[in-house]
Structure formats: C-alpha cells, structure tokens
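Field log, afternoon session.

UNIT: design team B
ACTIVITY: writing a sequence onto a fixed backbone
BACKBONE:
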C-alpha cells in the first residue's frame, strides 16, 4: 500500500485533496506527522522518514518520493486512467508535465519572493516575475477552463493550492480568480480544508 506522510494545514494538504479527488483514499494510508512551523511551534518528527523532516513524502514499497509535483505525478501515473492525470501518449500530457514542473521551478519561488518582499535582477532573470507568471496562467485559461484543458488535473490542484494559504497574493485578474474559485470550491478540496481547520 502507498503511505503518505502528512501534516495538516501544510503543503501536504493538497496531496490529501488530490487523493480524495481521485477517489483512491482507500488505497493510500495517510500517516500524520508533526513538522516545524514558521511560528516556532511543532518539531521534527522521528516517525517521518523525509530527509529534511518535511512533508509531503510518499512511500511505495522501496520507492520514496518527495516534492509535491513529483508525488502528484507518481500518484496520477500509478493510478493510470484517472482523469486527474494525463497518461503517457494522452492529449495534454506535455502540458500536464510542464505545469507540474513550472510550479516548482518558477511559480513557488516567485510566490515566496513576493511574500517575503524580495527583489533582485538575478532572481528576476532566473524566475521571471509575477506579471509574467500571471500572463502564463491567463493565456492558458483563455482557451480552457483549466490549465491543461477543460478537465481539472492535478496541476490545477497543485498551483491553485497556493491561494488557499495566501489568498492575498491572488492577482486582480478575473480569469485567474475564477479559476482559483473553481479549483478551491470543489467538494473534495473544501471538505479536506474544512476538516483540517476544524481539527486545528
């Protein structure tokens, strides 16, 4: 069985949301762990095998997968044929892989820099800027309801999850705000978020 190491209200929440959205919650064991939090609470959990004590971490037999985009790709490939992924050879596979990689390579660094109010020409040259990122999102959403096509994918869940924890960073671009609402208001996403908030 697959085992996900998860800390509520963290980056691993979106993995739990994906698992429920895919309808495979009975095939993935969610193991709750504690992590250090930015406010100084929490601590490294000895029960968590992540080499840096972080989440999410997925374990499947001898395979150990870390980083949200890698875990989402692993899950959607493992449960092939699930509409949240795009199988090898399927239409949209290239776009799906590109958006998953774009999140970690471009989008999250830009969001963190914006959140921390950091600016430097070297960073801008490497990661672009938020205006460019928002242009990429708006371009994709101008032709489809979601980033890959008209069917939600794990890439949408991954990227839109940013605005669940930092709604103030959502751009004032109607087409992007509408997409964020479509993603965050899905029943599985709302149910997991609400249950974690209630348990906090």
């Amino acid at each position: 069985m697959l085992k996900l190491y998860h800390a509520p209200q963290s980056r691993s929440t979106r993995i739990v949301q994906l698992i429920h959205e895919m309808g495979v919650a009975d095939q993935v064991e969610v193991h709750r762990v504690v992590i250090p939090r930015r406010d100084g609470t929490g601590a490294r959990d000895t029960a968590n095998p992540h080499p840096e004590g972080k989440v999410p971490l997925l374990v499947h037999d001898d395979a150990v997968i870390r980083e949200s985009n890698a875990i989402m790709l692993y899950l959607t490939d493992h449960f092939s044929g699930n509409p949240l992924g795009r199988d090898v050879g399927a239409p949209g596979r290239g776009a799906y892989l590109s958006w998953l990689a774009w999140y970690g390579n471009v989008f999250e660094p830009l969001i963190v820099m914006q959140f921390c109010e950091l600016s430097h020409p070297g960073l801008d040259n490497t990661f672009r800027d938020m205006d460019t990122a928002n242009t990429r999102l708006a371009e994709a959403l101008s032709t489809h309801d979601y980033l890959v096509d008209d069917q939600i994918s794990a890439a949408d869940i991954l990227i839109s999850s940013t605005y669940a924890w930092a709604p103030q960073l959502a751009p004032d671009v109607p087409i992007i705000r509408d997409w964020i609402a479509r993603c965050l208001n899905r029943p599985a996403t709302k149910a997991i978020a609400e249950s974690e908030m209630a348990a906090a």
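LOG NOTE: The mean pLDDT is 95.
NEXT ACTIVITY: expression trials, pending approval
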